[in-house]
């Protein structure tokens, strides 16, 4: 029996070492990309409302005689019209990104209609939801520059350097900082430069006045064994662990430090309430309101960092136990919408991103040769404070 191949992606976030001229260049390019995204999206929405198409958008398709151009091609012409100086490959990536966003499935929490019996509603496409006024069109505000690997090159001799064209013309060389790079990251960069790893499409992102290159690295592993384990949520509010892991040999291992998570959530809720009380007492009236808004935003960002770290440590604990027990398949019992209301998180009044948890767990486990298999945990399988043993 052939071993199953697993693929995972790790995104390296590398800081760029730029001169003042290069920072100004990246700012101009990012503004142009942002303008092109919003203009193309606005063009799509207006065309759906009755705006006539441009001459290039109205041309018939060469491949399909008698039919019009594909929607992605029409979006491409709108991007090109808004940013005529951008490189063609970048224009294509922007258009494909907008088209993919419009064709994506709408999140279940934004689905029209009620959810009965714990069953998910039929997923709607984002474009249809926007046209039906069930969802709002996305508005792009961040500085983000797409990088096409086919027209870019990466070298690592004395320092790592990315060479890519932004406008129609010569390439621009961007140097990366290596002072804070880990040894493993440097090794991956050397493999990219040598060609042993394929350079994928990436992006350059601005954050707090600094520019970073987000490059995805693909890993491929093989399932380590045929031993199985099961991960399922806890349905007891008094438990100190939000997840339990059933290991071979009738052993159970608790996942996640629930007491720490509850303590931090309580602390940040109290801090946000204190800031809100100060605003109600008119201490933030007039120009002082910005100070309070910044304080609220700071506390929210801190809480998001704690939630991310909690999720990361829980996943690391799961993977560590799987590696220690040479487990090749992890069966994850994901609760349905109704069963989630009975989980440890909802019983303690805490939010939890179940979709993000499953995605990060699958990606982290695949790097260690562990295959994550999702099996829904529905309401009819739920018995009292825990799922039925026959279903685990």
Kindly list the characteristics that best describe this protein.
392 residues, alpha+beta, 3 domains, seven-stranded antiparallel sheet, 40% helix, globular, disordered C terminus
The largest pleated sheet is described as: 7 strands, antiparallel
What proportion of the residues form beta strands (DSSP E)?
15-25%
Q: What's the structural domain tally?
A: 3
- Low-confidence parts: 114-118, 387-392
Question: What does this 3D model show about the protein?
Answer:
- The protein has 392 residues and is an alpha+beta fold.
- The chain has three domains: 94 residues, no CATH class; 116 residues, no CATH class; 164 residues.
- The strands form three sheets. A seven-stranded antiparallel sheet has the order 2-6-7-1-5-4-3.
- Strand 13 and strand 14 form a beta hairpin.
- Helix 1 crosses helix 2, helix 2 crosses helix 3 and helix 7 packs across helix 10.
- It is globular.
- It starts with a strand and ends in a 5-residue tail after the last strand.
- The C terminus is likely disordered.
């Amino acid at each position: 029996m052939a071993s199953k191949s697993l693929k995972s992606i790790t995104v390296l976030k590398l800081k760029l070492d730029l001169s003042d001229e290069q920072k100004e260049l990246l700012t101009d390019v990012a503004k142009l990309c942002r303008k092109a995204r919003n203009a193309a999206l606005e063009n799509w929405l207006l065309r759906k409302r009755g705006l006539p198409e441009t001459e290039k958008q109205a041309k018939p398709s060469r491949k399909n005689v008698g039919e019009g151009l594909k929607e992605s091609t029409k979006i491409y012409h709108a991007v090109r019209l808004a940013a005529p100086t951008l490189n063609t490959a970048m224009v294509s990536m922007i258009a494909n990104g907008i088209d993919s966003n419009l064709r994506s499935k709408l999140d279940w929490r934004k689905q029209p209609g009620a959810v009965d019996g714990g069953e998910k509603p039929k997923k709607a496409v984002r474009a249809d939801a926007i046209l039906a006024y069930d969802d709002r069109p996305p508005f792009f505000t961040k500085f983000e520059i797409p990088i096409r690997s086919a027209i870019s090159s990466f070298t690592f001799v004395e320092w790592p350097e990315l060479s890519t064209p932004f406008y129609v013309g010569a390439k621009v060389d961007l140097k990366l900082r290596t002072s804070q790079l880990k040894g493993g990251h440097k090794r991956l960069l050397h493999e990219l430069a040598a060609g042993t790893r394929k350079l994928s499409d990436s992006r350059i992102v601005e954050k707090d006045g600094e520019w970073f290159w987000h490059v995805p690295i693909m890993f491929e592993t093989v399932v380590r064994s045929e031993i199985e384990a099961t991960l399922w949520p806890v349905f007891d509010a008094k438990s100190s662990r939000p997840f339990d892991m059933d290991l071979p040999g009738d052993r159970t291992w608790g996942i996640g430090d629930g007491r720490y998570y509850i303590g931090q959530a309580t602390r940040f809720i109290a801090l946000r309430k204190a800031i809100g009380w100060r605003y109600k007492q008119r201490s933030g009236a007039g120009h002082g309101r910005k100070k309070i808004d910044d304080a609220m935003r700071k506390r929210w960002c801190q809480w998001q960092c704690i939630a991310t770290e909690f999720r990361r440590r829980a996943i690391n604990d799961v993977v560590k136990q799987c590696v220690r027990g040479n487990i090749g398949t992890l069966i994850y019992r994901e609760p349905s919408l109704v069963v989630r209301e009975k989980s440890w998180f909802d019983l303690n009044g805490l939010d939890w991103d179940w979709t993000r948890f499953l995605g990060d767990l699958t990606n982290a486990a695949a790097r260690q040769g562990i295959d994550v298999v999702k099996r829904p945990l529905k309401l009819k399988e739920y018995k009292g404070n825990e799922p039925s043993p026959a279903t685990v």
